[in-house]
Amino acid sequence: MPESDSEEFEAVRRDPDPLRRGRRATELLTLYQQRATELARLRKAAIEEARRDQDLTYTEIAAALGITKGRITQIRGSAPSAERGFFGVGPVAVGVPWRYQTIDRERPLIAAEDAKSGDTTDKLLADLGFTVTGSRSAQRPKSCRKAM
């Protein structure tokens, strides 16, 4: 397994299987996009912390970061919110439990309140700029699949 991002990148580049290479490239794109979003959040927090704790002006902060004061204004207005940090870097998988033997049915089911919670969580995560993975209806548990 590759040890660094550059080694992982090169491993994808060298993979002779085009489908595996394409699938892995897609996975890495998603991961890197999530990391970029989290880095933007961290940068915004650092700017606000420098302003608050070190009593620096935005002009001074911009000079220290090597960006313009206008860019500082853009970052303050567009970077992800602090709440995003609660969920980590992403992507985030959302799962909803199967309920077994909750009524007189042999097959498991997904409770309506669980499905609604999953949808609400999906929306919250999307609003925070996350890629959300996981599917509540992708596949039934093996115990309830019919033999063919």
Note down, in words, how this protein is organized.
It is a single chain. The chain is mainly alpha-helical. Helix content is 54%, strand content 3%. A two-stranded parallel sheet has the order 1-2. The longest helix is centred in the first third of the chain and has 36 residues, at 18-53. Residues 137-148 have low confidence and may be disordered.
Low-confidence stretches: 137-148
Number of helices: 5
**Biggest sheet strand line-up:** 1-2
Average predicted local confidence, pLDDT: 82
Percent of residues in helices comes to 40-55%
Described by the principal axes of the CA atoms, the overall outline is: flat
Percent of sequence in beta strands? under 5%
Would you list the SSEs in sequence order as H and E? Answer: HHHHEHE
End-to-end Cα distance, whole Å, is 38 Å
Strand segment count: 2
Largest sheet: 2 strands, parallel
- SSE class: mainly alpha
- Computed over alpha carbons, the radius of gyration is 22 Å
How would you summarize the topology of this molecule?
Blueprint lengths: L4 H10 L3 H36 L4 H8 L3 H10 L13 E2 L18 H16 L4 E2 L15
Parallel strand pairs: 1-2
